[in-house]
């Protein structure tokens, strides 16, 4: 097991109530387990956010490279609206 370090945190009462209820209901053996589980979830979510941000930045860089290389089209909102109308009209209306 990894080295353990004790940390003291301060939480709002409503969060403390939820944590203590999870322990009392037997979902977790201790408050520490609840916090560790929450931190594991946070780490995973944060990792996904970082990956998504990197992908977004890569998309932006590709777009900027396209602009710099002249690979762009004139923005035509009317053509976009017309294309959308054709797509909607082509869909089946039966359930």
TrEMBL record:
Origin species: Rhodoblastus sphagnicola
Transmembrane spans: none
Pfam family, one: ParD_antitoxin
GO biological process, one term: regulation of DNA-templated transcription
PANTHER family per UniProt: ANTITOXIN PARD
Name of the protein in question: CopG family transcriptional regulator
Family the entry assigns: Belongs to the ParD antitoxin family.
Sorted UniProt keywords: Toxin-antitoxin system
Family matches, as Gene3D superfamilies: Antitoxin ParD1-like (6.10.10.120)
């Amino acid at each position: 097991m990894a080295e353990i370090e004790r940390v003291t945190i301060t939480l709002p009462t409503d969060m403390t109530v939820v944590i203590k209820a999870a322990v009392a209901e037997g979902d977790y053996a201790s408050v520490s387990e609840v916090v560790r589980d929450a931190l594991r979830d946070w780490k995973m979510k944060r990792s996904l956010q970082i990956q998504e941000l990197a992908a977004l930045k890569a998309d932006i860089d590709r777009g900027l490279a396209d602009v710099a290389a002249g690979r762009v089209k004139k923005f035509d909102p009317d053509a976009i609206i017309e294309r959308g109308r054709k797509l909607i009209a082509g869909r089946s209306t039966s359930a």
